[in-house]
TrEMBL record:
Source species: Salinomyces thailandicus
Lineage: Eukaryota, Fungi, Dikarya, Ascomycota, Pezizomycotina
Keywords associated with the record: Membrane, Transmembrane, Transmembrane helix
Transmembrane helix is among the record's keywords: yes
Transmembrane segments annotated in the record for this chain: 196-215, 377-397, 409-429
UniProt name for this protein: Uncharacterized protein
Origin: domain of life: Eukaryota
Amino acid sequence: MDFLTARILQQAEREGRFEHIPTELINLSTYESQPTVYSHHRNEWDGETNAANAFALYSPRAPDRSVRAGYQGDATGHLKCLSQRRRPSHVSNQADKLPFKDAAALRDVFDNFGLPTTYLHIADGSPAIAQCTISKTAKGRSKLEFVAHCVTKQGDWAMALSHDPSANSTSVYWSVDQRIPAEHLLEDLTAFKDSAFHPMLVPCIMFAAALEMAVRRRFDIKDCLRRLEKAVQLLHRHTSQSLLGAPEHPSELESRSRAMEEALGLLTTCRRAQASRDGRNDFWRSYQDALETGLDYAEHATSQVPTAQFDRAHDELKRWTALASRKLDSMKARNNDHIARVDIASDTLYNIVQQRDSRIQLSIAKASQRDNEDMKFIALLGSIFLPAGLIASVLNVQEFQFVGGAKLFGAYVAITVPFIVVVVTLCIARPHYKQWQERGLRGGRTERGHL
């Protein structure tokens, strides 16, 4: 694993994937019969401070300073939290930058605080994953390591945590970007400071915060879906009115065109939001499994904590996690309901488009039919002049003359004019005959129905 870690850091240095981010240290120590010691040190590693001095003062290997403050007895637990309130921006299709000055600074932090280097294998931002593993220390005791990394539109965050039962100490690296309110997270940590001995306190706080971000994301999707359904309903009403033969004004046609564009855009947005649901669900499953593993570990690895004190904190975290899990299950069910509603809106929109295309095709077919009838009429009129030409040839009429010398022109007129009158009469009477025939057929069907 050390070889893989070194290779990851070397590659990050070659690619220039380091960006210095100020780091804060929150130090919590709990006691059986004394108040919890809380200290918050800002910007301990701003690039100018000597890191070695800071580690000597605040690393888990340092002696407990609260003893010098008058506290008696051993601490039941220590929590060393390295917090970053912002992260390098995530760029799609690119590996995330590591929020440290360089590889040496990152290695010093992870080595001095005993943080799991397995985090570096997911620190590039490509997977959204949470994992909790339990290993054995040199003394044969269990040791917990928890790593998580998540990239979302609501905010990116990362966590690397380790718990050493021999030192009763939990070390955690906790990094969130500026879209996530870090103050609220630290307020939650302060509110639960008496439970700082519990190794899963910070992961539980982040689980609840990530769930709140997911709920806000669902609200955005729900608002988009509501606007989609409204646009589809408006289009459906316009389509129904046009099918009933209601007159359409140019303004109505323009309004329908805008509604169609809006509906298609909203449908694309809803589909895009649902496209990554499998990946999100997989992340939530991995996070829930990691929490369950960590909570089970805590029941056996915190024997130094008095039973009543541990049970109170452990039960409270389990209730909190169980409630958050129920909210997550409800949100997943709502997401499935939203998927069904988007499918219904998509089918309705597809039917509306199909009806519009069918109406256009029907109009084209009717226009073609009218053109065919007109062409037939023209062809019939043209065919009348064919026998007239034959008669003119037989009678040797070279040209039409309107003077007295054309003795046979009267025969030409007497033959062709009756033909023209008969054909025109038949063409005019044909539609009326078809209407009369259709009324007769409808009347016959009605009489058979009464019988």
